Amino acid sequence: MFVTILEHAARKRGVRVEKVERYFASSRMCSGCGSVRWDLCLAEREWVCEKCGTVHERDLNAAINIRDRALSRAVGDVRPAERAVAV
Q1: Where is 30: in which H helix or E strand?
Q2: pTM
Q3: Which of 19, 49, 23 is nearest to 36 (CA)?
Q4: Which candidate among 9, 42, 45, 71 keeps its CA 20 to 30 Å from the CA of 55?
Q5: pLDDT for 2-47, tens place per residue?
Q6: DSSP string of 31-83?
């Protein structure tokens, strides 16, 4: 129901809504380099990327990844070329 209301409100304002797939690994993917840490458990609120050393706060990292995923669908990859990864 929320998505329906959001899409209706967006249409009225001429705004596009981009959906990110349900099981996108948003909190497990490093927003710095794109590597995924599959063994990350829900209780871990902070983690360090083993590939690039970036320290992540789980929810903020997820928000960055969701934003970037939605933007890349709308306008193309928004990350610098050295950070772009195929997912």
Answers
A1: none
A2: 0.71
A3: 49
A4: 71
A5: 999 999 999 999 988 888 888 899 999 999 999 999 999 999 999 9
A6: TTT--B-TT--TT--EEE-TTT--EEEHHHHHHHHHHHHHHHHHHS--S-TTT
Tokens encoding 3: 């998505």
- What are residue 76's phi and psi, to 5 degrees? 105, 175
Q: Which two tokens stand for residue 20?
A: 């990110």
For residue 80, count CB atoms less than 10 angstroms from its CB and return exposed for 0-12, middle for 13-18, buried for 19 or more.
exposed
